Amino acid sequence: MMRIPLSALIGLFFTGLFFLSAIFAPWIAPYDPSAIIGDFWEPISWEHWLGTDNIGRDLLSRMIYGGRTTIFVAAAATVISFTLGTTLAFSAVVIGGWVDMVLSRFIDLIMSIPTLIFALVVLSVVPVTIPVLILVMGLLDLTRVFRLARAVSVDINVMDYVEAAKLRGEKTMWIVFREILPNALSPLVAELGLRFIFMVLFVSTLSFLGLGVQPPDADWGGIVKENKEGLIYGIPAAIVPGIAIAILAISVNLIADWVLSRTASLKGGRNG
Amino acid sequence: MIKLVIQRLALGCLLLLAASALIFFGIEILPGDAAQAVLGRSATAEALANLRAEMGLGRPAIVRYFEWLGGVVRGDLGVALTNGVDITSALADRFSKTLFLAFWAALISVPLAIFLGLLAVRFRDRWPDKMISAITLTLISVPEFIVGYVIMFFVAVKWQLLNPLSIVTANMGVFERLEAILLPVLVLTFVVLAQMMRMTRAAILNVMESAYIETAELKGLSRFEIIARHAFPNSIAPVVNVVMLNMAYLIVGVVVVEVVFNYPGMGQYLVDHVTKRDVPVVQAAGLIFAAVYILFNMFADIISILANPRLRHPK
Amino acid sequence: MSKELDHYSNEVAKGRMSRRDFMGRATALGVSAVVAESMLATSAQASTPNKGGHFSMGISGGESTASLDPATVTNDVGQSAGRMTGDTLVNVNADGTIDPRLAESFEPSEGGLVWTFKIRQGVKFHNGNTMTVDDVVKTLQRHSNEDSQSGALGIMRGISTIEADGDSVKLTLTSANADLPYLMSDYHLVIQPDGGMNTPADGIGTGPYRITSEEPGVRYAFERFEDHWDPSVGHYDTAEILFINDETSRTAALQSGQVHFINRVPPRTAGLFNRAPNVEVRATAGKGHYVFIMHTDTAPFDNKDLRLALKYAINREEMVEKVLAGYGEIGNDLPVNETYPLFDTEIPQREHSLEMARQHYEASGHDGSPIILSASEVAFPGAMDAAALFQQSCQAAGIPLEIQREPSDGYWSEVWNVKPFCASYWGGRPVQDQMYSVAYLSSADWNDTRFSSPEFDALLIEARAELDLERRFELYSQMGYLLREDGGLINPMFNQFLDGTSANVAGWENDPNGSMMNGFVGVRTWFS
Fold first, then answer.
1. Alpha-carbon gap, residue C124 to C106, rounded angstroms
2. Which of B263, C36, C76, C362 has the fewest CB atoms within 10 Å of its CB?
3. DSSP secondary structure letter of residue B279
4. Which of B108, B301, B267 is nearest to B196 (CA)?
5. What are the domain boundaries of chain C?
6. Which residues in chain A (209-238) have CB-CB distances under 8 A to chain B?
């Protein structure tokens, strides 16, 4: 058991806090998140720890439930994009030839169309439910993971030890998971943290554009949108969700950094 | 090498064609059409029918697609359905503004990101590394519209140093334009800096574990020299990839920043025309965006190949 | 009454009403000639406009797809640009009277079946040509002929022939209409050279400003047109309209002084915004209303008890307080209010009553399945909030209302007038007849509540041709009672127009006919 650095501890603490409050939202939220219990934009008080939102709902309760939506959607979409993206990329590289060609070009094709337009088209045709949202986000983001994973693994694929494995007659999947994956892990883990943040920001942006979660539920981006006018007047309801997004993002990345340095040291590096 | 480039170029053209078809039929399946979008709520059935006839929306989609394609091959992008403006000149204007913004944002952010990445590796786990990490992390973690509004509020409203909106008009000089786009350039730099810097750091650290670095160290080279001369060139592939992705993002994905600072670039232009179902404009703009992506990706691929001797001479 | 007089004296000061006219009206209101004379003097002194300066307006509602063709204008930017560069035959004053512009005068004959507009002589277009009767005829034809794409097509439908008659234009209607001149103030009906038949979007009109630069989605620039026929308007040397759709950016731009005027100040921050130095929020009670509309011919909304249950369940005060931050008045399930001439203020106000809502809901025999309300932020600013409030108060009354958020994109084509229950808004019309004719007559173009009542239709047709005002008032009152009880309109609130100006902008006048002084802010204001 190695010593956990302070930064990672902070990251773990906040991430844990957010995840726990997401899981136990119904028990810890002081009010019903869609009940109107006061005037709009009431300041912070003992009854309402974060004040009220734009139509007088308790902000803390909305933040807790909103965090639940945000974290769940972003995490699920990240899992989809990462597992599919890296598996496809590594397989493409190891198999090579026309499989690599077709996959890479297809990904290029999807990427060449601006994400926002794509999201706009898909989300205005199909009904926006949470599974649809996750799927659309995950699939759109997959392209980016694919490109990066491919770039990293192309370099590894020509290494002598991979050649050796191929000559030994190992199966494609064995090579992918035993040779490529461990050696590509550290840049990918760094990317995983960033991807999760991008997912959080992406779902916020979608909600911001009115394509996200259905009201009266809201994710953090949706709460920012509802209270956006108050932003430059320092209304807590506009600022708190932004801060929450930032804290979540930073904590996750602090953990990713720590994992990154750990995997580096596992590889026998001297600086770990 | 030349063969490779030609191959890639031909492929790029094919991709463009596929992208244009995808965009065209994507817009077709959206509910509503340009006539309805133009007239909005005040549309009567007759006015709608008249406008549809004038826009030529009555004919089958496939016919319109090939007519459009024919025009593009002849270098004619046509006119906008909604306001009859010549698309080529309107797009040229918007695209040049987008490029202007992207150019300055890239000029600042790319060298800065790589420099900070190198610096972070050099002082790995010491305070400069931690500070750089913390700052870039914070910047990337706040949604760009919030960064935009906060900067706008302080710089323009509170201290009144600059104008909040980036209005760029035809009769402005270069310096006036630069002043006008200062705030969005700042925000964009914040947005793309972190990812590039972190990738640089991670990729170099990855290489730093290799045996040849040890050799170089044993040769007695200074730490910074090792990083700059040995580690960085060998970690260039993922870095170039991330840089290219971000450059493309600066051109294609800045809608939010354009909205916040009211900058008349391509993003807002495209979104407006998508909501108005103005297919020719969306097609033309989509084509440019697709071309940008394909070009940048091609650069990334070629540079990665050039940077890796094993890829340069495949067995 | 004194407010009315103040208004008239201002009109004289601006040269839009003759002295004699003013004295006549003042005596009619029971003011002695001496008092009237002195009022006129102070008013003229107080409001002598300064000439000069560059006026910058930040207006939301425009896109890069915008065109200067007045026929296809749908938004605030297009409307203002039309007001800057062009004129209509008549305008409607803030008090609901008619101000003759390119028509010098007008008069009905044959009991309101034929209207003759005498066209002003010597009016110059920006291209140097003099406006002719023929230009006017062609303009009106372009908006009403068979292949017209004009947004004014609906209101032109009642006109059967348009012809030149010496220096007048003669309009013959399909049925008598006492309010026809009001229709001619529609912002689409800007007079263009040759009627705009060939180049409708070149921005050439007779207005006080000439367009100098046109960048749709970015900016329109103007300079004063020195040959304008009316020297009492158009005070700035140059002006511009900047397209600013983001409300936070718009308010920041006004606060920092980059622009001198913005439209659509967000209501919840208007109070905070007003505290900023050099900024003034202008709130105008108007005719616009934010509504929920039910199709009265579709289940479950074909059930009158269910409609009434929803009407009682909505908490109007709360909506005005929370959605409009108090910048509005509660509605009474009618599309009209006291800003309309001949409105009966005696019609009782519907109160929020959960008890009544519950009773009517039970009487309706609804099976308890969710009642779907479609809404989107584009329906009106704060629509999602209003829907959420509505849902909460319905829940308290035991009514299972569910909100379905629709994409903003395509809302007006796919949801409004299509889905049986949705959020919407109306900007209002100058007179009751027009408001009822566009949306509540059973054969109306935009009958978005599918309201079909032969009794109501008959009253409306009768009122339209009725020249006796007392009788007309009576008819409108009956229609009001009918629609309030039976209609598919739930009108919780009339919104005030919220515009913002720099403190040094003078000549502002609250105009209930539309926001931005009914679009005339650049035309009638000046720097103090």
1. 21
2. C362
3. H
4. B108
5. 2-46, 54-60+207-283+498-527, 87-196, 289-495
6. 221, 224, 231-232
Alpha carbons B10 and B265: distance in angstroms, whole number: 29
Side chain identity, residue B248: A
Strand C261-262 to C54-59 pairing:
parallel
Domains plus CATH for chain A?
6-26+37-271 (1.10.3720.10)
Residue C176 gets which letter from DSSP?
-
Contacts of A116 (CB under 8 A, 6+ apart): A209, B253, B255, B267, B271
Nearest residue, CB atoms, A112 vs list B149, B205, B290: B290
User: CB distance A55–C323 less than 8 Å?
Assistant: yes
**Does A214 sit within 8 Å of C405, measured CB to CB?**
yes
Checking if the pLDDT of A107 tops 80, the result is yes
Chains that touch C (3 or more CB pairs under 8 A): A, B
* ipTM of the complex as predicted: 0.76
Any C CB within 8 A of A215 CB: yes
Which residues are CB-contacts of A245 (< 8 A; sequence separation ≥ 6)?
A70, A200, A201, A204, A220, A221, B141, B142, B143
Contact B163 C258 (CB under 8 A): yes
Q: How far is Cα B258 from Cα B166, in angstroms, rounded to an integer?
A: 9
Q: Give the span between the Cα atoms of B240 and A62, in whole angstroms.
A: 42
CA distance C2 to chain B (A): 38
Chain B interface includes C212 (CB < 8 A) = no
| Enclosing H/E stretch for B66 | helix B61-73
**What b/e string do you get for C274-312 counting C-beta neighbours within 10 Å, with b at 16 or more?**
eebeebbbbbbbbbbbbbbbbbbeeebbebbbbbbbbbb
**To probe the interface with A, which of B14, B137, B301 has the most A CB atoms within 10 Å?**
B137
The Cα-based distances of C420 to A216, C309, C409 in angstroms read 21, 16, 19
What is the domain class of C54-60+207-283+498-527 according to CATH? Answer: alpha beta
pLDDT digits (tens, 9 = 90+) for C119-173: 999 999 999 999 999 999 999 999 988 777 787 887 888 899 999 999 999 999 9
Provide CB contacts within 8 A for C88, sequence distance 6+: C101, C102, C184, C185, C186, C187, C189, C190, C191
Tens of pLDDT, residue by residue over C446-503, are 889 999 999 999 999 999 988 888 999 999 999 999 999 999 999 999 999 999 999 9
- Chain C nearest C-alpha distance from B252 (Å): 17
Q: Return the CA Rg of chain A.
A: 22
Chain A contact for B32, CB < 8 A?
no
In tens, the pLDDT along B15-58 reads: 888 888 887 877 777 666 777 766 666 566 777 777 777 777 77
| pLDDT over 70 percentage in chain C | 90
Any CB–CB contact under 8 A between B253 and chain A?
yes
CA distance B249 to chain C (A): 22
pLDDT value of residue A267 = 42
Considering only alpha carbons, which residue of chain B is nearest residue C67?
B83
The pTM of the full predicted model, rounded to 2 decimals, is 0.80
> What mean pLDDT do residues C507-515 have?
90
At residue C8 the predicted structure's pLDDT band, cuts being 50, 70 and 90, is: low
Give the position of tokens 């016919």.
Answer: B63
Amino acid making up residue C311: K
Measured distance between the N- and C-terminal CA atoms of chain A, rounded to whole angstroms: 14
Nearest Cα to Cα of residue C68 among C83, C89, C54, C88: C83
Would you list the DSSP string of C312-344?
HHS-HHHHHHHTSTT-EEE--SSS--TTSTT--
Choose the CATH number for C87-196 among 3.40.50.620, 3.90.76.10, 1.10.10.10, 3.40.718.10: 3.90.76.10
Cβ separation of A111 and B202 shorter than 8 Å?
Answer: no
**CATH 3.10.105.10 corresponds to the domain C289-495:** yes
